[in-house]
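Dear colleague,

As promised, here are the two records you asked about, laid out in our usual form so they can be pasted straight into your sheet.

NAME FIELD: protein one
SEQUENCE, THEN STRUCTURE:
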Amino acid sequence: MEFQQEIRGFLMSRRARITPEQAGLPYVGGNRRVKGLRREEVAMLAGLSVEYYTRMERGQLGGASESVLDSIARALQLDDDERAHLYDLARSVAPGSRRKRPKRASPITASVQQVLDSMSVPAVVQNGRLDLLAANDLGRALYADLFDMAQQPPNFARYVFLDPRAEDFYADINQAKNLLVAILRATAGRDPLDKQVTALIGELSTRSTDFTTRWAKHNVRRHTRGRKTVNHPAVGSMDLAYDDFALPGDPHITLTTYTADPGTPSADGLTLLATWAATHKQPQTISDDIRRIRPRHS
C-alpha cells in the first residue's frame, strides 16, 4: 500500500462526505463540481493555506505538527477512530518511520491461555489483522466455522468475504463486512510495513470484488465493544455483547469476551453452546479411553 495514496484517499473521502451546510459555511447557489467540501474550504476551516493543505492531501503529511493535524481533524469532523488513523498516517510518512520493526514474542503465553480457560463465557484472542490467535472451549464453539477453515490461523476477514457460511452466521452480514474492513484499514494505517497485513489485503482484493468496493471507501474503526447477533448452526440465534481488553505488551492484541443479558433467550443459547462444546469434546476423549483400555491383538 502506497503511503501517499492512502493519505490522499482518506482525506478526499472524508471531505467528500461533508456538505458546506454541515460545515457551517454559507450557502452559495449554483452547481458544485465536487462532492462535499472543496480543498480551499477545508483549508479555510482548518486555518491553513490552500497550498499547504493541497500538499498534505497529496500525501505530504510528514512533519505536520499536532496542532495542524488537530485542525484538519476538526475541519473534516473526524471521530476518535478517524483522528487516530490520521495520526497513524502522519507517522507513517514521518522521517525515519520506515524502519523495520522488531518482531515481538508471541503474546499467547501459558498464563494467557489459563485466563481464557478460566472464563465461563466465550473468549478469544485476536490481533489487528483479524487472526484468531487463541480461544477457550466456548470461544472455539462459538466460532467453530473459523477453526474449521483450511487456512490457519482462523481469520475473520477471510471468513466473512471468502466463506459462504458467514452469510448464515451473521444476522447482519453487511454490518459485519463494513466493520471488519474498517478495522483492517485502521490496522494497515497503523503499521504500513506489516507484510502479513499487506498480503491479506492483496489476497482479499484479488478474490473478492465486494471487499475491494468496501476497501475503497477508506472507513476506519477500532474494535472495542459493541453488540452482534449471530446464528450459530447448533444453538440458533444469539444477541451478544462483546468487549475487548488489550493484552500487556501489545495494545493491538486483544482478549474479546462475549456475554448475553441474563434471563434472555441468548443467555439460554450460551448455556446450550457450553453443552454443545462439551459434547463435541467427548467423542475424542471416549475414543482415547477405549484405545487405552482395549487390549492389543497381534
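NAME FIELD: protein two
SEQUENCE, THEN STRUCTURE:
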Amino acid sequence: MENHLIDRVGWLRAAVLGANDGLVSTASLIVGVAASAAGTSEVLVAGSAGLVAGAMSMAAGEYVSVSSQSDTERADLAKERRELADDPAAEREELARIYVARGLDYPLALQVADQLMAKDAIGAHARDELGISELTTARPTQAALTSAATFSAGAALPLTVAALSPANLVVPAVAAASLVFLAVLGALGARAGGAGLVRGTARVASWGAAAMAVTAGIGSLVGHAV
C-alpha cells in the first residue's frame, strides 16, 4: 500500500505542537525570569516548574479535547447504526446520492452502495457520510502522551542551555539557542508534513522570537519595579 503524508497527521500535529509549545513557553519563562535579575537557581527552578506544569497541561488538554472528538464520533456512529437497522433502504439511497454528487451515474452509484454496504455498511457510512476513517479517528491517549513527551523534550532544550550558561549570559544564550532549536523544529515539521522548509522555519522562529521578546521586556520591567 502506498504511504501518504496524511498518514502522519495525527501524531505529527501533536508532536509539533507539543515540542514548539515546550520550547517557546519554557524559553520565554527563563528569559523573562532571568531578565528580572533573578539568580541562576531561581531561573532553573522556574524553568523546571514550567516544564512539568506545561507537560501535564498539554497532556490533559489534548486528552480532553481529543476525547470530546472521540465522543462525538461514537455518538454519530451509534446514530448511524440505528438508522441502518431501522431503514436500510433510506441509508442505501443516502449513500448512493453521495456517490452521485462525486460524479457517478445513479445506477452505478446504487451498485457501489450495495456492494460496500454488503461488505461493511457502518464502515461505508462512517467513511463517506461522516468523514470518519482509520486515518482521522480520534485517539485521546496517543495525543496526550505524544504532547506531554514532546513538550518535555522541547522544554528541556532551553533549560539545559540556562543551566550551562554563566548567569550574566543566560538571556542571550537561551534566546539564541532557542531560535536555532525553533528553526530546526520548524524545518523538521515542514519536511515531515511535505510543506516548504523556508516558510515553516520562518513561521515557528518568528513567533518564538516575539514571545521571548515580550516576556523579556515584562520581566525586566517587573524586576526593576520590585
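A couple of things worth noting about protein two: Residues 63 and 107 are 44 Å apart (CA to CA). Residues 1-8 have pLDDT under 50 and may be disordered.

Best,
R.
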